Amino acid sequence: MGTYPTTDRTIPTRSRERASYDRALVHSVLDEGYVCHLGFVRDGAPVVLPTLYARVGERLYVHGSTGSRPLRMAGAAPDPGLAVCVTVTLVDGLVLARSAFHHSINYRSVVVHGTARQVTDPAAKREALDALVDHVVPGRSADSRPANDRELAATAVLVIDLAEVSAKVRTGGPNDDDADLGLGHWAGVVPVRTVHGAPQPAADLDGAIAVPDYLTAPAGGTTAC
Amino acid sequence: MGTYPTTDRTIPTRSRERASYDRALVHSVLDEGYVCHLGFVRDGAPVVLPTLYARVGERLYVHGSTGSRPLRMAGAAPDPGLAVCVTVTLVDGLVLARSAFHHSINYRSVVVHGTARQVTDPAAKREALDALVDHVVPGRSADSRPANDRELAATAVLVIDLAEVSAKVRTGGPNDDDADLGLGHWAGVVPVRTVHGAPQPAADLDGAIAVPDYLTAPAGGTTAC
Predict the structure, then answer these.
(1) N or C: which end of chain A has fewer CB within 10 A?
(2) Does the keyword Oxidoreductase belong to this entry (chains A, B) (predicted)?
(3) How many other C-beta atoms lie within 10 A of the C-beta of residue B185?
(4) Listed residue (B107, B96, B103, B97) closest to B193, CA to CA
């Protein structure tokens, strides 16, 4: 699939060896996470809000609600749109070194710079809504009532092209100084994972409705505990 | 402990019933997470980077490295500092409704608006480094080699006062429309948790060094799986 072209702002000033522009890696990180942190500028100051997202090809759909600030600030095409930075971070481990200085975490992150525009076409909005639902719970959009026209109108979705994108990855154990290797402190990695617990039915759910298979089979990057 | 005063930008335009300014709630969210998303403005565009942080009283320390962009942009007092937004998000569950439209997630998030300045005082830097290490692994700073002067000089820490702060929380089951309650779709919540796996010793660790107690006892918000 190749790589994303680099730009001045996708080349880090530090830890360049951890940066990657590989499309397959970027897609895998974006597909494993489902909460992004959406950054934009309001009255000259930065704002960072968590929200749900989904990737479809080289587009990122970000969920919002009509009336929310980033949505009101991002017009639909041909509006110039809203400059955004979307960041997704997956934590894989805590890295304990002999020295306090070399403590770190293992992680995979993706940073997307771009312009967000509102999705207004009803068909594109439906595609985005299905993608958002299926991204969090694969298979779910086919097992829920689709949005009606009123709900579609009340849903706001931003789209950002994946063009200026970078990933950053740290893996492996601690990088202690040679002089510290003889110290008596334990050193290594504590793995971190996100897991799903047993599904809890809604209080008003008909007891005859069983938990669907797509909730009992482990999916993308998570493990039943 | 009371509440943080509200400002125009800490009052959400949507879902106001989910917003809170309670200091105890804000502190509990900040203390349970350890990765924040730091937003700042560079050349007029937003940048959002993941990094480690720790709370000490009403101060937030954010880890950086000398030479990184936000660090170079934030001077030490009396420099006016760098306008930042720091957001911490904890995901608690996936909310499955009968309708695609009412799908959601349960979460707790904190958004901090403020000004970041570099910590230059060596004693304050040591306090910050210890807090950062102990925040990720409680008890660890006392069981590792403290930073020496060279390492302290190579470490950059930003400090942000907790003054303009809000939390947002969603809990509970799906909020389906009454007309959808009879549909045959399963509805409810899938709990999401972050768990720690078994500690993996570094390849070069002396086999006689046992895993410390503070890694085997469950701590703050995480559960051994």
Answers:
(1) N
(2) yes
(3) 18
(4) B107
Chain A residue nearest residue B50, CA to CA: A89
Number of other residues whose CB lies within 10 A of the CB of residue B42? 14
The interface pTM score, or ipTM, of the predicted complex is: 0.93
**pLDDT tens, residue by residue, B176-206:** 999 999 999 999 999 999 999 999 999 999 9
Quick: pLDDT tens for B46-73. Answer: 999 999 999 999 999 999 765 566 667 7
Q: With an 8 Å Cβ cutoff, are A41 and B44 in contact?
A: yes
Give the pair of three-digit tokens for residue A90: 């997956």
B8-188: what CATH class? mainly beta
Q: For residues A101 and A177, what is the distance between their CA atoms, to the nearest angstrom?
A: 10
Beta partners for residue B196, in sequence order: A192, B224
Give dist(CA A194, CA B196) in Å, integer: 9
Give the up-direction half-sphere exposure of residue A46: CA atoms within 13 A in the CB hemisphere.
Answer: 33
- Tell how far CA A99 is from the center of its chain: 32
CATH number assigned to the domain with residue range A8-173, chosen from the 4 options 1.10.10.60, 2.30.110.10, 2.60.120.10, 3.40.50.2300? 2.30.110.10
Is B136 strand, coil or helix? Answer: helix
B204 vs A163, B143, B207, CA distance in Å? 41, 18, 9
Asked if residue A82 lies in contact with residue A156, where contact means CB atoms within 8 angstroms, the answer is no
Residues of A in contact with B217 (CB under 8 A): none
Extract the tokens encoding A161. Answer: 């092209």
Helix (H) or strand (E) holding B115: strand B104-118
Q: Apex CA A68: angle with CA A62 and CA A72, to 5°?
A: 90
Rounded Cα gap, residues A36 and A48, in angstroms: 10
Cβ-Cβ contacts under 8 Å, A137 against chain B? 94, 96, 103, 190
Q: Taking the mean position of all CA atoms in its chain, how far away is CA B110?
A: 8
Interchain CB distance below 8 Å, A190 and B196: yes
Cis peptide before B80 (omega within 30 of 0): no
Distance to chain B for A194, nearest Cα, Å:
4
